[in-house]
Amino acid sequence: MAVVACGRGNDSGKLTEVQRVRSGMVDVVLLSPRDAIRHGKDTFVIEFRSASEGTLVDVGTVKGNATMPMAGMPMLGRIDVTRTNGVGRYEASSDLSMAGTWRMAIEWSGPMGPGSVTFSGPVH
Q: Rounded CA gap, 102 and 121, in Å?
């Protein structure tokens, strides 16, 4: 895991890289002020980086959703994504009702064209 400094507005703090997934020429990175995304209400950062250069890139409009596989019907969670002042950096607020393995889908459409990734991992 990598630790990076990041700020939003007047806040600044250290963020831990939770997961990274590549889609074409873009790395999508989930960052949290803790060691993991938490169940209940939580906030985290989503960054979009050039896969070749590592620089932040503008991907335009970003949407997210979350599901937890369960017998019968999956549990649904909420992820709201908001653009920050920094290019390629978005703040996400989630509401995931319980701890366990969640599948998070992130979609975007903008200057880099449309794209999507899926993260699957533990929520504490």
A: 6
Give exposure, 61-96, as e/b (b: 16+ Cβ within 10 Å).
ebebbbbbeeeeeeeebebebeebeeebbbebebeb
pTM (predicted TM-score): 0.85
CATH number of 43's domain: 2.60.40.3340
Q: What is the pLDDT of residues 59-81, one digit of tens each?
A: 999 999 999 988 888 899 999 99
* Number of domain units in the chain: 1
Domain residues for the domain of 62 are 3-123
Q: Is the pLDDT of residue 51 over 50?
A: yes
Return d(Cα 27, Cα 25) in angstroms, integer: 7
In 3D space, the residue among 22, 2, 8, 6 whose CA is nearest the CA of residue 82 turns out to be 8
